C-alpha cells in the first residue's frame, strides 16, 4: 500500500465515491418521484377532480396543483434520501462491493463522506422548500383559489339563467353589466338555513373578493329581503335595504383540500413577530417558536437519515435488503412519533419549545453514531481477505466464469437443455419480491403521512390511540387500492432494469426465448394483482371507506360517529353519515 502513489490513491477514492453516489442517487430520485406522487394522490382526487367538474380551465388546475407540491417535498426529500441510501448500499452489500472497498482500505467512515455530501445537498434543498417555497406556495394557493372563485362567480352567471353552483344558494339575474362590474335586477334565494330561508330581490349586485380577509361575498344594493318560516306560512317578514352583504364560505364553493392555514404560511420574521406578540399578551409562544425550529430541524434530518442509512445498509448478508428497507420505514415513523411527542411535551411546558423540534435529531443521531461504531467494528472483524481471494483464484485456475450471478450455468448450456420452467420461476420470484418490497414501502409512506396529518389531535388529547388505530384499520383497504398498481409498475421497471443490466435478457433471446415469453411471469403476476384489486373493490372497499370517513370525522371534530356494519342497496349511501363527512 505504501508503494502506491498519491495519484493512484486519489483515483481509487474518487472511484469509490462515484460508485457509491451512482448507486444511491438513482433510487433516491425514483423514491422522491414516487413518494411525492403518492402524497399528491389525495389532493389530485379531491381538488383537481372538483376543479375540472366545475369547469375550471386546465392551466389554472395545473397552477393550483403545483402550489401543493412544496408541502409534499418537505416530507418526501428526507424519506427518499434514507431509502435511496438503503437501496444503494444494499445493492453494494449484496454484490460484495462494500467488502471489496473495505479490503482495499476504504473504511466505513470513508464511505460516509460521499453520503454526507448528498445529505448536505438534500438538507439545503429541504431548507429552501420549508423556509421559502412552502409559505409562498401556500399563499399562492389561497390567492389563485380566491381569484378563481370570484371570476367564476361573475363570469359564469348568465342572463336569465338560474345559477346554482353556490351550495344552497340560487341566483338569477336579468342583465349582466356590459363592463363586467356586476348584475342588474337580481333574485337570490338563500336556503342554507332550511328552517328560515331568505329571498332577496335587488336592483344591483356583484361578487366582492377580499384577499386579505379571505372572504367571498355577494353584495346586493337597493332591494328587499323576504323571509317566511315553512312551519308558519302566515308569518311573513319583509325588510328594505340599501345594501346587504351575503357571505359565502369559499371552502364550500371551492375544494376544501389544500395547505393548512396559519403558521405554515408565515415566514421566519413573521413567526418571530407572532411569538413576540403572544409573549406581550401573556400567551405561550410555543407554537410559532416550534414552527421556526421545525423549518431547520426537518432539513437536518437528512444528515441523521444518511448516518442511520449507512449503518442499516452496509451488511454482509445478501438477503438483508428487505429487512433494511422495513427498518428504514420504521426509522421514519419513529422520527415523526418523537417529534410530535416532543411537541406535546412542549405544549405541556415539560420541554422547551426551542428544544422540542430537535429531539428526534438528537435521539436518532446518537443512535446512529452508536450503530456506526458497532458496524465499523463488526465489518472489520468479519473481512476475510484470504478466503475472498482464494475463491476468485480457484475460479481462475479452473477456468470457470459465470458473469450472470443469478443464473445457474447449467441452464444455459444449450437451447435444448434450457429450463423454461426454472426461468419462469426465477423471473416471477424476482418480480414478486420487488413488488412486495415496493408495496411495503409505499404503504408505509401512506401510514406516515396520515399519522402526521392526525397526530396533533392525538397529542392534544382530542382523540385516543385506539381510535386512531381503528381509523388506520379501515383506511388500509383504500391505501392498498392506491399503492398496489404503483408497486406493480415500479417492480416491473426494476425487474426489466436488473435483467437488462446483467445481460440476462440477451442470454434469454440467444437461447430462443422471446421477450413476450420472458415477460409472461410478470404479466401473470400483474393479472393476479388486478384480480386482487377487483375483489377488494367489490367486497370490503366501500364499507371500509364509510367506516374510515366516519372515524376521520370523529377524530377531527370530536363528534361521535356511526359505524356501518352491513350496508344495503336499499339504504341511502349517505343517509346515516354525518353531513360534513
What does this structure look like?
This protein is of the alpha+beta class. Helices cover 65% and strands 10% of the residues. The protein is built from 18 helices and five strands. Strands 1-2-3-4-5 form a five-stranded antiparallel beta sheet. Helix 2 (58-67) packs across helix 5 (108-155) and helix 3 (69-94) runs antiparallel to helix 9 (321-347). The relative contact order is 0.08. Residues 1-13, 256-261, 383-419 and 564-581 have low confidence and may be disordered.
Mean pLDDT: 76
Q: What is the CA-atom radius of gyration, in angstroms?
A: 30 Å
Query: Helical element count?
Result: 18
- List SSEs in N-to-C order: HHHHHEEEEEHHHHHHHHHHHHH
- Coarse structural class: alpha+beta
> Which regions have little confidence, pLDDT < 50, spanning 5+ residues?
1-13, 256-261, 383-419, 564-581
Q: Using DSSP, what is the number of strands? A: 5
Helicity level, as a percent range? Answer: 55-70%
Kindly report the spatial arrangement of strands forming the biggest sheet. Answer: 1-2-3-4-5
Identify the overall geometry: globular
Largest sheet: 5 strands, antiparallel
| β-strand amount | 5-15%
Span from first to last CA?
A: 70 Å
Summarize the structure.
The protein has 581 residues and is of the alpha+beta class. The chain has helices spanning 6-53, 58-67, 69-94, 97-103, 108-155, 250-253, 268-280, 286-313, 321-347, 353-356, 359-382, 385-398, 420-459, 465-501, 504-510, 515-518, 520-539, 541-557; strands at 169-176, 183-190, 198-210, 215-229, 232-248.
Amino acid at each position: 500500500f505504501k508503494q502506491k502513489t498519491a495519484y493512484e490513491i486519489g483515483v481509487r477514492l474518487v472511484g469509490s465515491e462515484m460508485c457509491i453516489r451512482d448507486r444511491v442517487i438513482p433510487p433516491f430520485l425514483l423514491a422522491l418521484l414516487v413518494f411525492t406522487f403518492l402524497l399528491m394522490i389525495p389532493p389530485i382526487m379531491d381538488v383537481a377532480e372538483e376543479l375540472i367538474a366545475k369547469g375550471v380551465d386546465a392551466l389554472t388546475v395545473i397552477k393550483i396543483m403545483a402550489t401543493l407540491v412544496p408541502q409534499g417535498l418537505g416530507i418526501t426529500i428526507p424519506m427518499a434520501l434514507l431509502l435511496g441510501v438503503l437501496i444503494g448500499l444494499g445493492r453494494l452489500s449484496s454484490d460484495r462491493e462494500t467488502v471489496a472497498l473495505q479490503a482495499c482500505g476504504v473504511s466505513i467512515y470513508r464511505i460516509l463522506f460521499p453520503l454526507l455530501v448528498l445529505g448536505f445537498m438534500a438538507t439545503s434543498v429541504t431548507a429552501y422548500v420549508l423556509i421559502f417555497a412552502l409559505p409562498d406556495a401556500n399563499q399562492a394557493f389561497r390567492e389563485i383559489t380566491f381569484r378563481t372563485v370570484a371570476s367564476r362567480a361573475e363570469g359564469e352567471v348568465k342572463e336569465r339563467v338560474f345559477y346554482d353552483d353556490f351550495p344552497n344558494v340560487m341566483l338569477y339575474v336579468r342583465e349582466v353589466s356590459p363592463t363586467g362590474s356586476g348584475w342588474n335586477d337580481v333574485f337570490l334565494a338563500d336556503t342554507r338555513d332550511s328552517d328560515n330561508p331568505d329571498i332577496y330581490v335587488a336592483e344591483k349586485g356583484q361578487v366582492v373578493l377580499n384577499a386579505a380577509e379571505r372572504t367571498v361575498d355577494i353584495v346586493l344594493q337597493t332591494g328587499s329581503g323576504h323571509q317566511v318560516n315553512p312551519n308558519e306560512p302566515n308569518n311573513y317578514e319583509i325588510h328594505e335595504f340599501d345594501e346587504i352583504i351575503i357571505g359565502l364560505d369559499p371552502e364550500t364553493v371551492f375544494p376544501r383540500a389544500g395547505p393548512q392555514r396559519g403558521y405554515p404560511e408565515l415566514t421566519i420574521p413573521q413567526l418571530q413577530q407572532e411569538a413576540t406578540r403572544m409573549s406581550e399578551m401573556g400567551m405561550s409562544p410555543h407554537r410559532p417558536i416550534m414552527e421556526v425550529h421545525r423549518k431547520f430541524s426537518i432539513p437536518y434530518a437528512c444528515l441523521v437519515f444518511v448516518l442511520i442509512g449507512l449503518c442499516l445498509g452496509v451488511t454482509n448478508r445478501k438477503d438483508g435488503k428487505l429487512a433494511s428497507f422495513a427498518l428504514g420505514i420504521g426509522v421514519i415513523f419513529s422520527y415523526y412519533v418523537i417529534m410530535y411527542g416532543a411537541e406535546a411535551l412542549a405544549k405541556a411546558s415539560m420541554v422547551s419549545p426551542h428544544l422540542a423540534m430537535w429531539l428526534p435529531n438528537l435521539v436518532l443521531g446518537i443512535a446512529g453514531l452508536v450503530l456506526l461504531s458497532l458496524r465499523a467494528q463488526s465489518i472489520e472483524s468479519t473481512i476475510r481477505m484470504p478466503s475472498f481471494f482464494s475463491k476468485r483464484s480457484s475460479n481462475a485456475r479452473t477456468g470457470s466464469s459465470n458473469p450472470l450471478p443469478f443464473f445457474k450455468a447449467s441452464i444455459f448450456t444449450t437451447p435444448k437443455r434450457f429450463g423454461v420452467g426454472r426461468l419462469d420461476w426465477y423471473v416471477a420470484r424476482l418480480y414478486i419480491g420487488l413488488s412486495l418490497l415496493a408495496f411495503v414501502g409505499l404503504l408505509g409512506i401512506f401510514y406516515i403521512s396520515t399519522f402526521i396529518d392526525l397526530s396533533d389531535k392525538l397529542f392534544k388529547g382530542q382523540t385516543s390511540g385506539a381510535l386512531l388505530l381503528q381509523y388506520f384499520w379501515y383506511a388500509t383497504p383504500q391505501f392498498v387500492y392506491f399503492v398496489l398498481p404503483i408497486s406493480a409498475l415500479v417492480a416491473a421497471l426494476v425487474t426489466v432494469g436488473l435483467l437488462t443490466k446483467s445481460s440476462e435478457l440477451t442470454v434469454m433471446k440467444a437461447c430462443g426465448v422471446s421477450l413476450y415469453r420472458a415477460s409472461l411471469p410478470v404479466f401473470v403476476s400483474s393479472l393476479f394483482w388486478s384480480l386482487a384489486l377487483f375483489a377488494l373493490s367489490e367486497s370490503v372497499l366501500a364499507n371500509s371507506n364509510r367506516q374510515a370517513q366516519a372515524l376521520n370525522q370523529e377524530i377531527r371534530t370530536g363528534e361521535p360517529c356511526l359505524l356501518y356494519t352491513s350496508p344495503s342497496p336499499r339504504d341511502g349511501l349517505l343517509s346515516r353519515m354525518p353531513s360534513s363527512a
